């Protein structure tokens, strides 16, 4: 072994030992996880009380409202609820909490005799485009939407013996840049899965108020920026606009047939425009010669 | 109208095949090809009637479930047979209109269409017992002769409805009635009278359900209440049936809201489209029928001969009266005739005015979201703390331009107000209305302490998807836990909140009078005189309780039984008149139009009416006629072709705060009263939170800057959205709601500003706890030392105007933050803006950064002179401008001018 290699080996050993020693000196972060365990058939606390466990820490849910609190260490956590109803099979449900680094309030987490999968798709209400990365929550379960806006949320508490589907619970959808919204399961699951269909999220939108209304979109075959555009009904000029920097212009017209004239310096052009419906968009294009 | 209906029937037939049906003003047009199905007209007619009744029952299931009588639903109907969408001719048996003009009933004596003999006797005796009254109330049959009466097997497996009887004037063998076998003699009798009245009209229908079906229903009620016209029935049994299916008089004002009416009461699509599953459907259809009958019953109270005379004149010249205006003109002539003088009135109003005030008689299609409330009192449980339990229903549906109705689902969070317009909450379940299939209900129990243990007026706002309707209910005036026996008079007064005198309501009816004290804007009592229960004209005087001097009077034509009164000040029925100039502009009506259809308001055809309203959910404008009924508190863009005078008869709540509902994002709103208000007169709340002042809610619940449209002075189709400081009546404003729940703005009249302030202070603590104390305090402590803010106004001598604000503050960040304000852009109009990713009206930067503000001036006219004025708003700052050809400094209150060389310039502004 040459000197260089020996030095590297020694350095490696020192680093390893150093890392180990350092790790032993940092105490894990203490956190508190709290929430309420509820039984899907009643919407109230399980009776008898359920056992809630994270790692080697466990507690009983409160008999009144299902509340629990567990002191544990930060990390990748998993919570398990064990419930033995006075009649029927025992229920053991696991909730993956993911990496948790600070105190966490899970709010209401539901358990039930059955578990189903809820699926759906989150769409932008203005464009119908899929919304990826939206957080969907229901009954204590959470899912993220994929690139096509679809989500699949397994292990949602359910009871087929409950008259009201999911006890009337609503799910929520959140995504930065959108107003949060709620959805209600439209019916009972079939084959263990319930598709809630599409859920529309409204963008918080531009901080700028919308532009003015129009029902005619005008353009030029080429150029046209700054062109002066006149709309004639018969011989009367009823609208005058200026094309923008992209050579586009907008008009709001009642139904009818019009002549659209445009001039830009020595160039001019004209076209006939027919607006058939006031509530649908009509396009017109003008060629400047 | 007939042609239009036939075209629609043809469309339905093409889609559904032979036997397709279409509802038209209570008539079902049934396509029948005799060459294909010689004997099948009865089958297709029966199928159509079953379908109608089953759907009506489904659509009314939840509403009926709230009815204590749980009546089985049925609707007698007229069937018009058509071939290739053209009505078949009528075949008259036994002569045409004879001198007597009577209908002669004939029954099969054997076979499947024969009735059991005792039931046949029941029907015959009903006709015999009621005929003279029918002739008097409704007028004689328009065409006499034989009418067959056939047994119609009405069973529907679901038993949700019994198919009512129906009349076919153009059946191949002559007119016929097909009638079910009812278990109840009362149901049989009332429905048979109803069906006979349809036969009295033969084919001479009115063009709208409100008239066609309403007049028949009013007459049916009138006839059924004449002793001995309905054999084998007690007066109590008759009242129970009429209460369930015909008479809304006891609660009439609580559903008399725009959106209730329609040309056809059950939209065509609801007869063919799949209905929502689970029976979770609404009840506006039964409500419409009942309200229509009740409206005309009011006329019969004052003019018992009205329907007979009206039918007579109408049937003489049917084609002359195929519009609401034509029918109203005829109505005025008829009441003049009956009164024996010109200028006759109904409930103190001309016929046309009276018709306008009855929302059920609005025969327009009102496209867009329609909200119609219902309310009815329940008897309180004895010995409880109940202080008034009301059932409140919200019907929500969207009307298409062709009249189709989509039943909506969602959530409304009712807002309950005490008489002094402080908000109170009831219980968690009473503060939300879940709407499914167009229908949602809640049954709040109003607390007794909200009126200091006296009865009190409760205003209930029902916001939903950016619209709002308000009910006024008399909490404790009907029944309380301490006094559960229900009163038979109850109501509210609106428009007198500034009155300082004690008030009372004096009721005067033929043979009696009573005085009821007004507490907290509400009154109620029990009138012992049994004659009070009759349908009759009642004078309602609002008087000074101390000296009995008259404050205001109104007339109510009450129906049988209880009387609910919505007493409003004269000023609560204003007519809004203005001239809308022929240009692009933002407009609103500061009151609630009694007829909200914009094309009718402007006197334009649908295809000439340019009206648009922003829909934040879809991210685009909704154009009339897809949407756009004009409602109080909403704002619109319009572009009339020429200057257009409008005169809009309206209703409002005078001298009370009014709510405007916002959806998340940008909303076009307006001040819902004829007063210019500043934001100090505006409160802000959400569905479930306490109330804030505008300043407190700014940038938390709503954007602090709102905008109005500023027309270009020279081009009628250009303009600029500019920040506004006041809400001016008739204008439209963009306000942005920032909460997921949207928001509700409460506009208080100027006189109530002190109330607004004190109320807000009361609730401030809760708001602070809920919504971020630090943010609010941070904003209200003002701009930190060293900060500055200035306003740059850019003008021309022609009147162009645009403004921006810029400055620096320690509370500001380098990027967009709450101190910055967005700025709208126009379609080529003159506009100044600050650029920072997007266009801003105000940009605040952190101090001492030496940052450059980028200012864009767009829409300039080359050659035109523009002036820039620098007005300090905080501090005293000279700004320096680069980009005008030379570096230009503008001292505080100084200005500079330049001549535009091109349509758009970009400037750099720094704080020197």
The radius of gyration of chain B is 31 Å
Give the overall shape of chain A. Answer: elongated
Task: Give the largest interface pair and sizes.
Answer: A-B, 41 and 52 residues
Annotation field: number of helices of chain A: 1
Classify the secondary structure makeup of chain B into a structural class: alpha+beta
> How do the helices and strands follow one another from N- to C-terminus of chain A?
HEEEEEEEEEEEEEEEEEEEEE
Instruction: Quote the average pLDDT of chain A.
Output: 86
The assigned structural class of chain A equals: mainly beta
Q: Per DSSP, what share of the residues of chain A sits in E-state strands of 2 or more residues?
A: over 45%
**What is the approximate shape of chain B?**
elongated
Topology overview:
The complex is a heterodimer of chains A (about 290) and B (about 900).
Chain A: H1 3-24, E1 30-39, E2 51-54, E3 57-60, E4 67-73, E5 75-83, E6 91-100, E7 104-111, E8 114-124, E9 135-138, E10 141-144, E11 150-158, E12 171-174, E13 181-183, E14 193-201, E15 216-220, E16 228-233, E17 236-242, E18 248-251, E19 256-264, E20 267-275, E21 282-286
Parallel strand pairs in A: 1-7, 8-14, 15-21
Antiparallel strand pairs in A: 1-4, 2-3, 2-5, 5-6, 8-11, 9-10, 9-12, 12-13, 15-18, 16-17, 16-19, 19-20
Chain B: H1 2-16, E1 21-24, E2 27-31, H2 41-59, H3 61-65, E3 77-83, E4 86-87, E5 103-107, H4 117-138, E6 145-151, E7 166-168, E8 176-179, H5 185-201, H6 209-224, H7 235-245, H8 284-302, H9 306-316, H10 324-339, H11 351-357, E9 368-378, E10 389-399, E11 405-407, E12 410-412, E13 415-417, E14 423-424, E15 433-435, E16 439-442, E17 456-464, E18 467-475, E19 489-494, E20 503-509, E21 512-517, E22 522-525, E23 536-544, E24 550-558, E25 563-568, E26 575-580, E27 585-587, E28 592-593, H12 598-602, E29 611-615, E30 620-623, E31 636-638, E32 644-651, E33 658-662, E34 665-669, E35 677-678, E36 682-685, E37 692-693, H13 694-697, E38 706-711, E39 719-724, E40 726-727, E41 733-737, E42 743-747, H14 753-771, H15 773-780, E43 788-795, E44 801-808, E45 821-822, E46 831-836, E47 838-845, E48 853-858, E49 865-874, E50 879-882, E51 888-890, E52 895-899, E53 905-911
Parallel strand pairs in B: 2-3, 3-7, 5-6, 6-8, 19-25, 44-47
Antiparallel strand pairs in B: 1-2, 3-4, 7-8, 9-10, 10-11, 10-16, 12-15, 13-14, 13-17, 17-18, 19-22, 20-21, 20-23, 23-24, 26-32, 27-31, 28-32, 29-30, 29-31, 33-42, 34-41, 35-40, 36-37, 36-42, 38-39, 38-41, 43-44, 43-49, 45-47, 46-47, 46-48, 48-53, 49-52, 50-51, 50-53
Helix pairs in contact in B: 4-5, 4-6, 4-9, 5-6, 6-8, 9-10, 14-15
């Amino acid at each position: 072994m040459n000197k260089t290699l020996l030095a590297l080996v020694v350095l490696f050993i020192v680093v390893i030992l150093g890392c180990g020693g350092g790790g032993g000196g940092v105490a894990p972060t203490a956190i508190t996880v709290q929430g309420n365990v509820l039984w899907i058939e009643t919407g109230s606390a399980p009776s008898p009380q359920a056992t809630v466990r994270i790692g080697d820490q466990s507690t009983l849910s409160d008999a009144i409202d299902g509340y629990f609190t567990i002191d544990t260490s930060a990390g990748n956590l998993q919570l398990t609820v064990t419930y033995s109803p006075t009649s029927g099979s025992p229920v053991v449900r696991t909730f993956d909490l993911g990496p948790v680094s600070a105190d966490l309030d899970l709010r209401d987490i539901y358990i039930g005799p059955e578990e189903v999968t809820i699926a759906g798709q989150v769409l932008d209400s203005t464009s119908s485009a899929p919304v990826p990365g939206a957080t969907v929550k229901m009954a204590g379960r959470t899912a993220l939407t994929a690139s096509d806006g679809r989500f699949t949320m397994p292990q949602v508490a359910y009871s087929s013996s409950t008259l009201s589907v999911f006890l009337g619970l609503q799910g929520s959808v959140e995504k930065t840049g959108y107003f949060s919204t709620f959805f209600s399961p439209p019916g009972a699951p079939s084959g263990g899965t319930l598709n809630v269909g599409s859920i529309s999220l409204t963008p918080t939108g531009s901080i700028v108020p919308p532009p003015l209304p129009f029902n005619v979109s005008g353009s030029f075959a080429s150029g046209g920026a700054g062109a002066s555009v006149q709309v004639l009904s018969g011989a009367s000029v009823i609208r005058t606009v200026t094309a923008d920097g992209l050579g586009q212009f907008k008009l709001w017209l009642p139904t009818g047939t019009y002549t659209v004239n445009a001039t830009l310096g020595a160039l001019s052009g004209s076209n006939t425009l027919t607006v058939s419906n006031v509530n649908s968009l009509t396009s017109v294009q003008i060629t400047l010669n | 109208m007939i042609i239009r209906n036939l075209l629609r029937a043809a469309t339905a037939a093409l889609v559904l095949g032979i036997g397709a049906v279409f509802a038209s003003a209570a008539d079902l047009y049934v396509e029948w090809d005799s060459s294909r199905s010689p004997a099948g007209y009865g089958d297709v007619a029966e199928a159509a009637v079953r379908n109608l009744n089953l759907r009506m029952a489904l659509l009314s299931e939840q509403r009926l479930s709230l009815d204590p009588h749980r009546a089985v639903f049925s609707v007698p109907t007229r069937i018009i047979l058509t071939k290739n969408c053209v009505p078949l001719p009528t075949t008259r048996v036994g002569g045409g209109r004879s001198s007597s003009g009577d209908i002669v009933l004939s029954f099969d004596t054997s076979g499947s269409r024969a009735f059991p003999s005792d039931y046949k006797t029941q029907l015959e005796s009903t006709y015999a017992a009621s005929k003279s009254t029918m002739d008097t109330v409704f007028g004689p049959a328009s065409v006499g002769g034989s009418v067959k009466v056939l047994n119609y097997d009405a069973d529907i497996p679901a038993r949700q409805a019994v198919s009512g009887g129906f009349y076919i004037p153009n059946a191949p063998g002559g007119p016929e009635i097909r009638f079910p076998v009812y278990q109840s003699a009362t149901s049989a009798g009332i429905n048979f009278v109803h069906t006979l009245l349809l036969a009295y009209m033969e084919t001479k229908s009115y063009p709208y359900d409100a008239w066609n079906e309403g007049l028949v229903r009013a007459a049916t009620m009138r006839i059924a209440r004449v002793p001995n016209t309905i054999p084998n029935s007690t007066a109590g049994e008759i009242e129970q049936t009429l209460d369930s299916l015909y008479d809304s008089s006891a609660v009439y004002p609580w559903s008399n809201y725009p959106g209730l009416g329609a040309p056809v009461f059950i939209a065509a699509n609801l007869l063919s489209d799949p209905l929502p599953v689970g029976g979770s459907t609404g009840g506006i259809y039964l409500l419409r029928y009942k309200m229509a009958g009740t409206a005309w019953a009011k006329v019969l109270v004052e003019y018992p001969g009205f329907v007979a005379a009206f039918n007579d004149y109408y049937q003489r010249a049917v084609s002359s009266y195929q519009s609401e205006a034509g029918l109203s003109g005829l109505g005025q002539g008829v009441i003049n005739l009956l009164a024996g003088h010109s200028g006759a009135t109904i409930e103190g109003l001309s016929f046309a005015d009276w018709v306008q005030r009855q929302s059920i008689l609005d025969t327009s299609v009102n496209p867009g979201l329609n909200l119609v409330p219902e309310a009815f009192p329940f008897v309180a449980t004895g010995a409880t703390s109940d202080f008034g339990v009301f059932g409140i229903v919200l019907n929500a549906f969207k009307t298409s331009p062709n009249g189709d109705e989509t039943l909506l689902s969602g959530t409304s969070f009712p807002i309950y107000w005490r008489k002094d317009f402080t908000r109170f909450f009831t219980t968690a379940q009473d503060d939300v209305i879940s709407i499914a299939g167009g229908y949602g209900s809640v049954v709040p129990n109003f607390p007794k302490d909200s009126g200091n243990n006296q009865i009190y007026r409760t205003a209930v706002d029902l916001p939903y998807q950016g619209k709002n309707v308000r009910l006024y209910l008399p909490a404790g005036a009907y029944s309380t836990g301490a006094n559960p026996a229900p009163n038979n008079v109850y109501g509210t007064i609106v428009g007198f909140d500034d009155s300082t005198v004690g008030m009372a309501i004096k009721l005067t009816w033929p043979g009696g009078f009573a005085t009821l004290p007004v507490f907290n804007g509400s009154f109620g009592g029990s009138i012992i005189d049994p004659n009070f229960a009759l349908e009759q004209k009642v004078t309602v005087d609002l008087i000074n309780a101390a000296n009995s001097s008259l404050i205001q009077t109104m007339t109510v034509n009450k129906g049988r039984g209880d009387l609910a009164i919505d007493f409003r000040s004269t000023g609560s029925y204003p007519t809004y008149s203005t001239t809308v100039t022929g240009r692009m502009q933002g407009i609103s009506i500061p009151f609630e139009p009694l007829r909200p259809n914009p094309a009718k308001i402007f006197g334009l055809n649908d295809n000439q009416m340019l009206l648009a309203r922003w829909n934040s959910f879809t991210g685009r404008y909704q154009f009339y006629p897809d949407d756009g009924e004009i409602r109080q508190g909403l704002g619109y863009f319009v572009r009339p072709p020429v200057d257009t005078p409008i005169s809009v008869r309206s209703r409002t709540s005078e001298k009370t705060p009014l709510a405007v509902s916002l959806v998340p994002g940008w909303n076009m709103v307006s001040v819902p009263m004829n007063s210019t208000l500043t934001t100090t007169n505006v409160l802000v709340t959400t569905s479930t939170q306490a109330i804030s002042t505008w300043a407190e809610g700014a940038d938390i619940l709503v954007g602090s800057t709102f905008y109005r449209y500023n027309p270009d002075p020279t081009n009628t189709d250009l303009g600029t959205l500019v920040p506004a400081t006041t809400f001016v009546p008739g204008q439209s404003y963009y306000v942005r709601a920032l909460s997921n729940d949207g928001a509700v703005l409460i506009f208080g009249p100027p006189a109530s500003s002190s109330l607004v302030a004190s109320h807000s202070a009361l609730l401030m603590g809760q708001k602070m706890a809920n919504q971020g104390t630090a943010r609010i305090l941070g904003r209200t402590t003002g701009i930190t030392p060293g900060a500055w803010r200035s306003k740059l106004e850019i003008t021309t001598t022609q009147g162009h105007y645009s403004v921006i604000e810029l400055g620096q503050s320690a509370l500001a960040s380098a990027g967009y933050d709450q101190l910055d304000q967005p700025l709208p852009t126009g379609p080529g109009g003159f506009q100044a803006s600050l650029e920072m990713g997007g266009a801003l009206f105000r940009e605040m930067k952190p101090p001492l950064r030496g940052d450059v503000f980028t200012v864009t001036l767009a829409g300039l006219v080359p050659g035109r002179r523009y002036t820039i004025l620098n007005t300090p708003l905080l501090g005293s700052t000279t700004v320096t401008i680069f980009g005008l050809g030379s570096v230009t400094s503008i001292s505080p209150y100084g200005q500079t001018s330049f001549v535009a060389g091109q349509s758009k310039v970009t400037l750099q502004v720094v704080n020197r």
